[in-house]
User: What shape does this take?
Amino acid sequence: MARICVVGGSLGGLFAANVLHRDGHDVTVLEKVRGSMNGRGAGIVSHDALEAALGRAGLQADASLGVAVPGRVMLRSDGSTDTLLDMPQVLTSWSRLYQLLLAAFPAERYLQGTSVTRVQEHPDGVTVHAERDGQAQQWQGDLVVASDGIRSVVRQQYFAQAQPRYAGYVAWRGVCEESVLSQHTLSTLFPRFGFCMTDTEQIIGYPVAGPGNDLTPGRRAYNFVWYRPVAAGDALARLMTDADGVHHPLGVPPNRVSWRHIAQARQDAQRLLAPQFAEVIEKTAQPFFQPIFDLQSDQLCAGRVAVMGDAAFVARPHIGMGVTKAAEDAVALADALQQHGATGGALQAYESARLQAGTMAVARARWLGGYMEQASNPAQAPGCASLGVAERAHQTLHETAIDLGRYGHLSAFQTPHA
Ligand SMILES: Cc1cc2nc3c(=O)[nH]c(=O)nc-3n(C[C@H](O)[C@H](O)[C@H](O)COP(=O)(O)OP(=O)(O)OC[C@H]3O[C@@H](n4cnc5c(N)ncnc54)[C@H](O)[C@@H]3O)c2cc1C
Assistant: This one.
């Protein structure tokens, strides 16, 4: 049994904590945020590998996991149906997964309001330094698992060369109540995983549980992700500035997104998107956005420290697999510890198992988003030399629709290069 400190208590950290705790390790989670983290994320596409990882954490993925859909619908911009695909899938949510994973882990070992500042290794183990309630604190352990997200302090300490790179577009997101939508949208869009694109933009959406994880018809919600090119520099800085003129370079909190940007987005939706999606955006109480990044690592461990989840690799959301990838990292780490004990060798075995999967996920998602990157940054977009933006858009939407259901078979991905 090893003493393991998990840095970051979001979905990745909680997957690792649960799987390692279940394997008999003495696990403590240090999470920077204090208080409820519910409502942080929106919908999450599930894959077979996610359900398998829940099983490894001792949790059963039953019907309460999310909304089951029979397949996909692609809408043209006039609202007519372009394609229907039969692809049954369960669409879950960040809050449902968080609730499940948090309830399964000992509450006294989940320490919120604890911000890790650095890790120090010594011959017998590791010391994790943190701040809690303005006080410096320390935790001693055998291993550190860093699941502290895209701005990971642990990754920056150990692997500073790995830095997020802005993809040239943002994702507007939001959740609209089912009960406010028109019958037309409820019948032509809501029941399926929906897609619509323009030459330079793309929107996807799907039904999710309503407040309190309510799956009752009429009380569910519709989750959307709308990708829009925004050039780095002034245009992005303007978008990241709230209505009071405050610039938020690391992300605008959802309740601070400028009403002017929201009003503009709603107008653009009516002009560009299928009317069903425009209605969803119009009726979403608080749309917000996140800039999209790539993060690529070439190392996942050093000594007694491993990085996982978004701290290790961030793939654009076009394959809908960030949580699944973090869950698979957690399982691979636990398997390596079972095989090699709590040693640096175990962490190296984990790295060998996960480095290629992360690299492929980032490359594949870059390819799928390349046509939107091409719109704001033609020089850097991957694989665009031989195809125009519109051709890439068509090819990509169909590929995205398929990939969003098959992350469990990442080796089947082919990343074309122009
Ligand atoms: C638009 C969009 C759509 C997406 N859709 C999907 C989808 O459909 N399916 C899917 O699987 N994934 C999706 N993702 C990706 C997914 O949300 C992430 O990959 C996943 O949440 C990463 O989890 P994580 O635990 O690794 O990191 P995070 O969720 O970023 O968690 C990091 C945690 O570490 C904490 N932390 C940070 N610094 C410190 C510190 N110094 N000390 C202590 N704690 C710290 C943070 O507070 C946070 O709780 C999407 C992402 C985006 C942007």
Q: What stands out?
A: Residues 7-13, 30-33, 41, 44-45, 115-116, 147-149, 153, 171, 173, 225, 290, 309-310, 317, 320-324, 326 surround flavin-adenine dinucleotide (CB under 6 Å). The first strand starts at residue 3 and ends at 7. Residues 3-41+97-164+294-376 form a domain with the FAD/NAD(P)-binding domain fold (CATH 3.50.50.60).
